[in-house]
């Protein structure tokens, strides 16, 4: 179909599959292109023209909105608009919106004779996801071949960043300055070097439960709101979530945590940890495993009410001694110890002392939450090398409501003799302090927030090895905020930040 009504050219995948098979039976050569195509530009047009010359019928599939992994605010144009733009091209015969994250299943379904990619995929190592290998195998499995065009190249990401005001002025100026000093490929290379660090995480296990409910009205006789239960979802939270984030970047990950004997939920936990996490569970007889049950309105993820199941008293003496003995033996063998102290009873004074005395490099977050507000302070860790906390947490620790963040950081650095401190500032970004090099501010990279739960754990998990490896200070804040921007798009801890996702976002930001 040359030209024609663009809406007639946009088909469901199943219908397109049947149509292409009928063309093949007539002897036509089917050519297939696949991509995001967020901003149609001359490079795309030439790419499609070159692809069409390899056969008789050109079909283009586009990545569904929910699978676009180019970072916050992308795609700029939704899947329907992208499909319509491509269908308007004379060289394109048919368009479909893909149903899967990659083209592998679609290739097997359409069975094209030629699968065409741009010249930037000629070097397969440059594909951050590594999916080009799978797509190449898929086209070979259906009797086709892969072809790379060599046309003029443009960057949709660069055009969008420069001309579509995806980010506010402050962020664009920050990124422009960072781009002048760091190439995305070099930052990604440094991130890949994190895999060689041996890391131990120590902290509280938390099971986050979301009970999704719809408010149906006020009780007739009382003042309470009545809600209709819909469904529920469990997440591996707390130090479990931190370990899952870290395990994508580091190969050797040890997790030390504590479960309750009563309702320990151990089977769920084991099945929700990445395979390269080696876990050591301790158990306390007087408690359940910590569960935070939130009642959530599903449309906007509004938290209506929360119930905590926990015993936040110190560990029984015998259990504490077991933990200390284990840590004394193993902590010195690790390059980095990350502590997620949520103030829920696992890390007592004796365990803290072992961590502070034995760790080669100690990174700590002491979380302030509804169960410990004002009591779980970073000042409990006098020998931490890297501290990562938010603004309320540093204000509680310094008992200072009004002073500047820089003043508070200096106070904490002097009191704890800590050389590296990050304070996250919500919508104002973050500030990283490197003793001797000063303060490095990074603006926020997120436009909208789906869920804040777990974002701090992701930030701590990925920046800690960066600090340990001596990354430049401005890169620590940049990487942390990139991770945070991705994390707030995830419902609770439904998934972790994986390296290809972060690499793509880094490339998007630094283009």
Question: How would you portray this structure in words?
Answer:
The protein is an alpha/beta fold. The chain has two domains: about 5-165, Rossmann fold, CATH 3.40.50.620; about 190-205 and about 240-290 and about 310-510, UDP-N-acetylmuramoyl-L-alanine:D-glutamate ligase (3-Layer(aba) Sandwich), CATH 3.40.1190.20. The chain has helices at about 5-10, 15-25, 40-50, 80-85, 105-110, 130-140, 155-165, 170-180, 185-190, 240-245, 265-270, 315-330, 350-360, 390-400, 405-415, 455-470, 475-485, 500-510; strands at about 30-35, 55-60, 95, 115, 145-150, 200-205, 205-220, 225-240, 250-260, 275-290, 290-295, 300-310, 335-340, 360-365, 385-390, 420-425, 430-435, 440. The strands form three sheets. A nine-stranded mixed β-sheet has the order 10-9-6-13-14-15-16-17-18, with helices on both faces. A five-stranded parallel β-sheet has the order 3-2-1-4-5, sandwiched between helices. A four-stranded mixed β-sheet has the order 8-7-11-12. Strand 16 (about 420-425) and strand 17 form a beta hairpin. Helix 12 (about 315-330) packs parallel to helix 13. The longest helix has 15 residues, at about 475-485. The mean pLDDT is about 90.
